[in-house]
């Protein structure tokens, strides 16, 4: 099977787990090494009023372990800063590298030469720890598995059962199947190729490809799409019309690749703030060095101390956590409200959405057939009609039979006993209850039995038929006594979700592979602004592009393979959690609870998270705007000087403020 799998599927996965594991591993190692650094740090001992145990070599604990932490924990930041500098875009990594390098070199200088003031070893190691933790959190929150193409490919089996000229069936690798070959697709098996039915009759589940919730009848001359499932009870023989890269599924895979490649990454606010802070820190440090060298008549302890204080105060403790802490809280809050975040940028920008496009089947609706209406003639109650119909369909696995049985789950004991059950091919079923002959079926059954509907049932059938719903009739002793309407069930939450989105000024669109009548009916019930019916997989992607015209920001909500290109093309792709793997892998956000109201919560959470990020960034950068001039000694002529230790304390306080502010996000009202 491994060989077959290798021949049948191509790998597309790009694994980002290594980066996350690297930051996680380095964080824990550095955190353990940080404990003795803090315990034996002279600054910490002075602050807390204790004396650490002294023994031969204890004076090397702080500089030795700090050097190890700098080399091991700081290396990733130094490497990434080099990438920023090569791209001529110095930002967060460059600022982190500048801070830890200056703190390390100055601290080493205080050990080797003395007279320069207090070292920054404790600040160095805690800075590195915080940055490693922040990037571990970041990698975990933004890790986006690129397994959508494997999920698409997995719909198609690795082999096909090919019928030879002698009538014998043999397994072949898909690479060996040719156009014109005849393949056998058994019940429960997936179609390995595109083709035309030449023998047999069955129903195929095409929901993963077309979004159609009902199995589609396939008979000689019908088209079969590779990847769809034989959901019937009979095998069919299919003449191959397309294989490999020429199949409809392969076309969808190409669309996913193209749509993914067309998306551009947005730059984080924290990086932009860090870029400004980087240049501000450099300018402030240079000005400080020049001015105080001139004032003091040379480079002395005070000059170096003030320059280092400027750079230490500019250390991005708070800035480094400003966004990751909010993201971590946002991820947790979203999960508790039924949403998983796979792309960090999606939750940042959801607040700006102008249009949200929903796939109908499985998203606005439940993706299963349900009873939507029932009418009976005078003298027959709806309960009686339901019990009789459910009894007649008691042993059937047809979707309508399942829907009828769900309606009487609490009354199984009341079902009448049936005899002489038989299936009438293409028309319905027949049975006997006591002395009454009962039929259940659609319009063809009425034609065969040459019976007409009484007025009330006729009006019922016409009304629901115009909506594109399936109408089935109960006939007792040749006379119609009830009519049942069945359709894909609209989720209870859909209308409230759409109303809430409208209240936020967001337009709602719907895309579906269903007929215009069905689409119009659902759109009318839910108050949808625009709908697109009879949409093919490639067209969903095009409709998203059309909705994006004029610069509108568009989200797509879907659950099937046919939604994958549109999910990838949209500014934000939102997958229903119980949907196909490919929809989930192509999406930025996942609705775990299958609740459209969670989309409303996503938009509200996005706005609240953005405000917290902006507040944290302004605080982190704002305190630098105030403190850097003070650290540079702007008030020194009046006797106000910020010592390096005080600068470190102020920086630590700013980190605490940012952390507490991020926690306040949990109080945001997301009620929908």
3D structure, described in words:
- There is one protein chain.
- This protein has 672 residues and is of the alpha+beta class.
- It has four domains: 157-246, Distorted Sandwich (Calcium-transporting ATPase, cytoplasmic transduction domain A); 269-330 and 607-672, no CATH class; 331-365 and 491-606, Rossmann fold (3-Layer(aba) Sandwich); 367-487, Calcium-transporting ATPase, cytoplasmic domain N (3-Layer(aba) Sandwich), CATH 3.40.1110.10.
- Helix 4 packs antiparallel against helix 6 and helix 16 crosses helix 17.
- The longest helix has 35 residues, at 597-631.
- The chain is elongated and about 115 Å long.
- Residues 1-16, 141-149 and 258-267 have low confidence and may be disordered.
Write the SSE topology.
Elements: H1 2-8, H2 17-40, H3 42-48, H4 61-73, H5 75-86, H6 92-112, H7 121-142, H8 148-153, E1 159-163, E2 169-173, E3 182-185, E4 194-199, E5 202-205, H9 207-210, E6 216-218, E7 223-224, E8 229-230, E9 236-242, H10 248-262, H11 269-296, H12 301-313, H13 317-336, E10 339-341, H14 344-349, E11 355-359, H15 360-364, E12 365-376, H16 382-392, H17 399-407, E13 419-424, E14 428-433, E15 436-441, H18 443-449, H19 455-466, E16 470-476, E17 479-490, H20 494-503, E18 507-511, H21 516-526, E19 530-532, H22 537-547, E20 554-558, H23 564-569, E21 572-576, H24 581-586, E22 589-591, H25 597-631, H26 644-663
